[in-house]
Structure formats: structure tokens, C-alpha cells
Amino acid sequence: MIVVLAGGVGAARFLEGLAAIVAPERIVAVVNTGDDMIMHGLHISPDLDIVTCTLAGVIDRDQGWGIAGDTDECMRWLGRLGAPTWFKLGDRDLALHIYRTARLRAGATLSHVADEIRRALGVGVNIIPMSDEPAPTHVITDQGELHFEEYFVRERCQPTVHAVRLHAAGPVRPAPELLPFLSRAEAIIIAPSNPVVSIGPILAIAELRTAIASSHAPVVAISPIVGGAAIKGPAVPLMRSVGLEPTALGVAEAYIDVIDGIVIDNVDAHLAPAIEARGIKTLVTDTIMRGMPEKMALARATLELAGLAAMTPH
Ligand code: FO1
């Protein structure tokens, strides 16, 4: 099994490349649920849906989230009724949230529902939430404590972030299937997602961090920061707010107690010596996932760094 710690858009694109070079059934995506929230009485799981819909080939490729060709009739009517419409939920997208909410209410776990949805959409990759319990990520800002999605989407990252509060609803246990999958991992990959609010919530689950740090499997990360900037999202201000340098070196620092290696972009080659000096093997390559060839090449480079190059059919 190749276990991949995943957030949203960047992780989903990486997983597309990985699933194209190894059997999808050998991949276990452990997905962040810190962005989950209740909206319109529905359980919304942004990262689970981004990963699932991307791998199902139905994602809206321009946005990186939502379903291609979706309509917004329901959102328009919700607006007419005075309901909040800052978080755009398309009509097809809403089917996912309606189904998930009904199944959770019937007593299914978030893991069960994530598995039912990915199978229904024909996805071979195992998709498992980091936990079946609420684990909301909040940001402490000059406008008070906000749910991450309120900060990121409603306030468009304008508030100044003083701190990030992971697992804001209390202690979080790993989803039941995760520890057995981790014990059988041939490699553990930290996908190019936001180290603070996408990967951070996963590694903040003590049993997961311990299992990963003590795993015999190689643990390699891909830096989501290229040339001191994030390809997508608020990684730079959030890394600064938790005292991390918003560079590929800062990413290596964030994961220093769990990773053996890291893949960084060509533009950050000058940082390789400093990262290597910290005992982290560094592979410098093109990490910008423009299309499938680049996604597959990045996945291959990552497996190579993990010493599993032999696993991939040429
Ligand atoms: N991101 C936005 O910037 N604006 C939106 O209206 C929005 C809606 C949305 C609906 C479903 C979904 O699965 C994701 C959605 N996202 C939206 C993306 C989301 O805010 C972030 O990309 C992830 O939570 C971070 O990885």
C-alpha cells in the first residue's frame, strides 16, 4: 500500500498522476477533514469531495473544486430565501452533501460514506478521512475566531491571522482503518498540500503522527511552496502565522520529525543543501503539475525518492 496524506486541489492532482502509474487499489488517500462544516444543514467535506471528484474525472478543472458543468439553480433559490450563498454549492455537488448527510444521520461513519461515494463514482483509490469525528480547523484573526472556510472563502483571506487552532472541537482519533493501513505501508507520501491547514490537521492526530514517524516505510513529502509562493491557497500567510518560513525549507522544517525525504522544485535547488543538512534526502525536479505527463513524472520522482522506482511499470 502507498499511503498519501492529502488535502485538496494539489493533493488531488498529485493522486491523479500516482494512480496513473501504480494500481489505484494500492493507494490509500488519507484526507483532511479540517475544512468540513455544516452548511444549509448538510455535512460538507470539501477535501474528500475534491479528491474523489478529481480521481473520478468529474471535477471542475478550472476551479479545482465542484463538479464540471454544474448548475447553480438551488443556490440561486437559497439566495432568494435569504440563506448564505458565499460557499458555492452546485446542484450536482449538493447531491454529494445530501447523500452524505442522510447516511451519517442513518448511523454510517464518515469513512463508510467516503468509501460508498468513491465506489459509486468508479474510483479505485481507497479514500479515507483522517478521522470520523469532527476536527474543524479555525483561524484566530483580527476579526475573531473563524472556521477556515469562513477565512478562506467568505473573507477571502483578508483578515490578519494571529494563530491557527486545529481540532477546534476537541480531541480527534484516527479513522479506524488508518493504523492498519499505515502498518502495511510500502511508502508514505505527504502530497503537495498546505502544510498548516491541510496536512497539519492530519499530523496533529497523535496516533497518526507517531505511526508515521515510527514507520519502517520511507516517508517523503512534496513541497507545495515553489519559489516562496504557494501554487494555490493561503499557505504563505498561514505558514508565517505559525512561525514557519514560507519556503521549501520551511516545509521540510514543518515535517522534520516525520519525513526521510522531500521533493522540491528546480527554482528552489539552492535550498537543497540546507535541507540535506537536516538529514532529509532532497530530490530537485519540476514540481509544477501542468498536465498528466507532469503529474505522472512527479509521482514517479516521488516513488524514486522513496526507493520504490521499481514499483512503477515504465
Ligand atoms: N472554494 C472557494 O474559494 N469558493 C467556493 O465557493 C468554494 C466552494 C466549494 C464547494 C465544495 C467544495 O468541495 C469545495 C469548495 N471550495 C470553494 C474549495 C475549498 O474552499 C478549498 O479548496 C478547500 O477546502 C481547501 O483545500
Task: Walk me through what this model shows.
This protein is α/β, with parallel strands linked by helices and 314 residues long. It has a single domain (2-134, 169-305), classed as CofD-like domains (Rossmann fold), CATH 3.40.50. 38% of the residues lie in helices and 18% in strands. The chain contains 13 helices and 14 strands. It has helices at 9-19, 46-55, 73-80, 91-105, 110-120, 148-154, 178-183, 195-203, 206-213, 235-241, 248-254, 272-276, 292-305, and strands spanning 2-6, 27-31, 37-39, 42-44, 126-129, 138-141, 144-147, 161-165, 187-190, 219-222, 225-226, 229-230, 261-265, 281-285. The strands form 4 sheets. A 7-stranded parallel sheet has the order 5-2-1-9-10-13-14, sandwiched between helices. A 3-stranded antiparallel sheet has the order 7-6-8. β13 (261-265), α12 (272-276) and β14 (281-285) form a beta-alpha-beta unit. α1 crosses α13 (292-305). The longest helix is centred in the N-terminal third of the chain and has 15 residues, at 91-105. The chain is globular and about 60 Å long. 47% of the residues are buried. The mean pLDDT is 96. The chain binds ligand FO1. Ligand FO1 binds at residues 7-9, 35, 46-47, 49-50, 65-66, 87-89, 93, 149, 152-153, 198.
